[in-house]
Amino acid sequence: MVTTRRLAALAVSAAVLAPPRLLRATPTICLFRRLTGRPCPSCGLTRSWNAAARLDLRRAHRLHPLGPATLVGAGLFAAAPDLVLDQPWLRSPRVVGALVAGWLIVWLVRVRRPADAFGRAA
Questions:
Q1: Who contacts 113 (Cβ-Cβ below 8 Å, separation ≥6)?
Q2: What distance in Å separates the CA atoms of residue 2 and residue 23, rounded to the nearest whole number?
Q3: Measured between alpha carbons, how far is 85 from 105 in angstroms, rounded to an integer?
Q4: How far, in Å, CA of 84 to CA of 80, rounded?
């Protein structure tokens, strides 16, 4: 768990501290997106977390609709993993199923969007 916690802390820190200009100028490293031109389920999360950390929630939501919520979740996990992992309702198959289904629905909606709508600066 320590390694997972550190990874979450590193991901949150990198996304929050990276200059937005750098994130806009960096080419995509997502293999799925490079091959298909469409976003994978997590495409845009780093830029969304970066915008959410700067309280630009409209842009954060546009970059990835689940970005602000996942930033809060990852931040909570990095800061207090026991608080997050000790919640019995999070282990419920219904809750896990609903979270997975929600993530997949958001992804399917994003895949259908035009390729220029993924939040990249033109």
A1: none
A2: 28
A3: 25
A4: 7
The C-alpha atoms of residue 41 and residue 109 are separated, in whole angstroms, by 10
Contact 53, 15 (CB under 8 A): yes
Report whether pLDDT(11) > 60: yes
Domains of the chain, by residue range, sit at 2-117
76 HSE (CA, 13 A, CB side): 12
Q: What is the pLDDT of residues 67-106, one digit of tens each?
A: 999 999 888 888 888 887 788 888 889 999 999 999 999 9
**Cβ atoms of 64 and 40 closer than 8 Å:** no
Cβ within 8 Å of residue 56, ≥6 positions away: none
* 8 Å CB contact between 33 and 39: yes
The span from the CA of 73 to the CA of 95, in Å, is 15
Which ranges of 18-118 does DSSP label H, i.e. alpha helix?
A: 20-25, 31-36, 45-53, 57-63, 67-79, 81-85, 93-112
